[in-house]
Amino acid sequence: MSKKVFIKTFGCQMNVYDSDKIIDALKIIGYEKSENLNSADCFVLNTCHIRDKAKEKVYHEIGRVREAFVNQSKPLVIVTGCVAQAENTEMLKREPYIDLVIGPQSYHKINETILQFENNKLKNEITDFDTIEKFNYLSKIQNKISKVSSFLTIQEGCDKFCHFCVVPYTRGPEYSRPFNQIINEAKTMVQNGTKEIILLGQNVNAYSFKETNKEFRLSDLIISLEKINGIERIRYTTSHPRDMTKDLLDCYKVSKKLMPFVHLPIQSGSNKILKLMNRKHRVEEYVSTVNYLKEINDKIEFSSDFIIGYPGEEKEDFENTLKLIDKIKFINSYSFVFSARPGTTASKLKPIEDNISKKRLKIVQEKLFGYQKLKNKSLENKFIDVLVENEIKGQNKLFGRNPYMNSVIFEGGINLIGKIVQVKVTKTNQNTLIGELSNKNKFKAA
Asked: What pTM, to 2 d.p., does this model score?
C-alpha cells in the first residue's frame, strides 16, 4: 500500500515546478500525492523567502500541521525551498516538529534522505549547492504531471546581486540547464497533454548553455520549441532588463507561438534608486527596449514589478515612477512596499517612514490597476483566443487564459480542455474576463 504525501507550495512559479518534480521523485519510493492533509504520511512545505515575514509564516504553517495531527500519528515533516536554504539547521533547532530540511538545489537527494530518516529517525538538513547533479538526476525521472499549461525551469540562480534580493544566497549562482535536456523534457510534457510551456528562471533571459563551439540562448530555445508539434504557446519569466538581447527581442517579430506579453521588472522609475538597488540598468534603456518591441510587434503588452519606498526614495524618485507607468501603461503589474531581507545590502540601509511608503504604494496601485481595468474594458464585446486549462469545480464553467495571461471564465464542455477557442468577452473586472463561447468555433460546446 502506497504512502500519501501532501505538499503545500508558497511563492514563485519555480516552486510550483519544483513541487511537481518532488512528487515525481517521491513516487519512486512509494509515495502518492494526496489532496487531503489529514490523510498524509508525509507533509512537505515548499517555501519562498521573497515576501515579508516568510520565515514566521513557515513556523505558523508547521503549527497548523501539528494541530491537525494532534490526535493521530505524526507525519514525516519536510521543509524545502528558499527558507529552508536560508535557515537550514536553525529550523531544526527552533521547531522540533520538523524532521528534514532540504534546500532547492538538493532535491535529487530527497529520496535517500527520507529513507535514511525512516531507518534511523535522525533529523537532517541538506542545503548543498549541487545544481548540475540535481538537474541530471531529476531529468531521468519520468515526468507524469499532466497539465495544459506547464512550467519548465531552464535556469536557476542569480549573479546580479540586487541589494534587496536574497536569491543569490538561496538559489546560488546562475546555472543554465543543458539545451537538449530542456527540449527532451518539453517533448515529454507535450506527450502528457501540455499545450503551453512557460520557461522559468530567476534570470530566465540570462540563459546561456555552451556546447563545443555553440552557445545556446533563450532565443534558440524559443525557436526550437516552436518546431515541436503540440506546443501552441510559449512564454518565459522572470526576465532582467539587462539581458533583453536583440536576438531575444527579434523573436517577437518572427515567432508565431511566443505570446506578445512581456513581464519585465523595472522596480523603480528613478535612475538614482535603480543605482542604489544595484539593478545595473537605467530607465532610458528600459524604455528603449519597450519601444523597440512595440515597433516590431504592435500587439505586444507589458507588465512589471515595483518596489515602493526603497531606502533613499524621495518625492522626485516616486514621481518618476508614476511618469514611467503613464508612459508604458502596464496592463498587469506587481507592487510592494520595500521589506528588508536579512543578510542583504539593503537591510543595512535606513528605511523611509512606513506611512509614506504605504501612501505611495496606494497611489501606485491605483494607477496600475487603472490601466489594468482600462485594458480589460477595451476587450469587452471583442473575440479573444483562449487556451482552455481546466473546468471550475462545481460551476460547469471553464477556465483559460488569453495571450496576455488574463483569466477567462466561460461556459463550455470539458472536451474543450487543451484547445484554443474563441470567446466573446461580455464582462470584465480588474482580474478576470467573463465571456461566452463563440459560434465561430469548430468545437461543440457540450
From this structure: 0.88
